[in-house]
């Protein structure tokens, strides 16, 4: 029986402790979520961008191109970390994030798009909540509040401009790497707000592309080495959701697994 990547074969009997373990053991790096997000998400993301709420994100990981040919040439090769970097095409804005615990409110958290340590803070001296950007995206906020969750962490719009790319990388935290759990299908949910046709997020090893569908959602294992390129003439908008796992979301993940692999897969998992 084969699941995930073509070379991941296992022999029964097999029993995983949970869905995350099963996906890790069988190299499953995404799961479709059976829902659609409202199309107003795109309108509101653009309003947030037009209002100046987006900030440059990890320019050290953003590829720098001198001309259109260099962009197109990138499609046929790995996004090597030794490639010229320092481009200014990757931006982010947080609708839900953190501020220092002494701040009056969480409104200014919109520019805190990395983990607390990336902004000179710690998990112990921050507080979490909705940011000023949420005022321009009321329907997005309402949907997120109704989506199954317990406690959200960062909820971020990610913008990749035309002619921009991101190097081969993984997003597993130092803690995940130390604990040997780099791969984690539950680590992030990706909402595809606008993913142009000439654009991809793909695995670095197999070049398999994440099957985004506009206004669709995926569980994405960001511990997989991956790379991104936008060689269209349109802005690419996605939203990354961190935190909030609860019983209802576990049931949603179980439904996603069954829809993708069939109900018999549940016999192999302690659910």
Task: Report the order of strands and helices.
Answer: HEHEHEEHEEHEEEEEH
**Total beta-strand segments:** 11
End-to-end separation: 20 Å
Spatial extent as radius of gyration:
19 Å
Q: What fraction strand?
A: 15-25%
List the helices and strands and how they pair.
Blueprint: H1 19-25, E1 30-33, H2 40-50, E2 55-56, H3 68-73, E3 90-100, E4 126-130, H4 138-146, E5 152-160, E6 164-169, H5 174-178, E7 189-194, E8 199-203, E9 216-220, E10 226-230, E11 236-243, H6 247-261
Antiparallel strand pairs: 1-9, 2-3, 3-4, 3-5, 5-11, 6-10, 7-9, 7-11, 8-10
Features:
271 residues, alpha+beta, Jelly Rolls, 8-stranded antiparallel β-sheet, 3-stranded antiparallel β-sheet, globular, disordered N terminus
3D architecture notes:
Helix content is 20%, strand content 24%. The protein has a single domain (19-268), classed as Sandwich (Jelly Rolls), CATH 2.60.120.330. It is globular, with a radius of gyration of 19 Å. It has helices spanning 19-25, 40-50, 68-73, 138-146, 174-178, 247-261, and strands spanning 30-33, 55-56, 90-100, 126-130, 152-160, 164-169, 189-194, 199-203, 216-220, 226-230, 236-243. It is an alpha+beta fold. The strands form 2 sheets. Strands 1, 2, 3, 4, 5, 7, 9 and 11 form an 8-stranded antiparallel beta sheet that branches. The chain has a 3-stranded antiparallel beta sheet with strand order 6-10-8, with no helix packed on it. Mean pLDDT is 91; it is low at 1-13. The two termini are 20 Å apart.
């Amino acid at each position: 029986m084969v699941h995930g990547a073509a070379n991941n074969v296992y022999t029964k009997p097999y029993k995983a402790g949970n869905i995350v373990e099963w996906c890790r053991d069988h190299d499953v790096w995404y799961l479709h979520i059976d829902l659609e997000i409202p199309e107003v998400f795109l309108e509101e993301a653009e309003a947030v961008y037009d209002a100046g709420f987006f900030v440059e994100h990890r320019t050290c990981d953003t590829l720098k191109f001198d001309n259109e040919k260099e962009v197109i040439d990138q499609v046929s090769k790995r996004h090597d970390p030794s490639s010229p970097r320092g481009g200014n095409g990757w931006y982010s804005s947080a609708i839900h994030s953190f501020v220092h615990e002494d701040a009056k409110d969480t409104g200014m958290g919109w520019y805190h798009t990395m983990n607390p340590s990336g902004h000179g803070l710690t998990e112990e001296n921050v507080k979490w909540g909705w940011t000023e950007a949420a005022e321009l995206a009321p329907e997005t906020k309402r949907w997120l509040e109704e989506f199954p969750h317990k406690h959200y962490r960062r909820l971020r719009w990610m913008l990749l401009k035309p002619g921009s790319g991101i190097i081969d990388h993984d997003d597993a935290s130092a803690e995940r790497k130390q604990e040997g759990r780099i791969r984690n299908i539950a680590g992030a949910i990706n909402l595809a707000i606008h993913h142009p046709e000439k654009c991809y997020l793909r695995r670095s090893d197999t070049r398999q592309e994440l099957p985004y569908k506009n206004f669709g959602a995926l569980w994405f294992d960001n511990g997989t080495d991956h790379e991104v390129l936008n060689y269209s003439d349109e802005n690419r908008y996605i939203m990354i959701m961190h935190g909030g796992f609860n019983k209802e979301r576990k049931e949603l993940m179980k439904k996603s697994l069954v829809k993708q692999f069939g109900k018999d897969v549940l016999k192999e998992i302690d659910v």
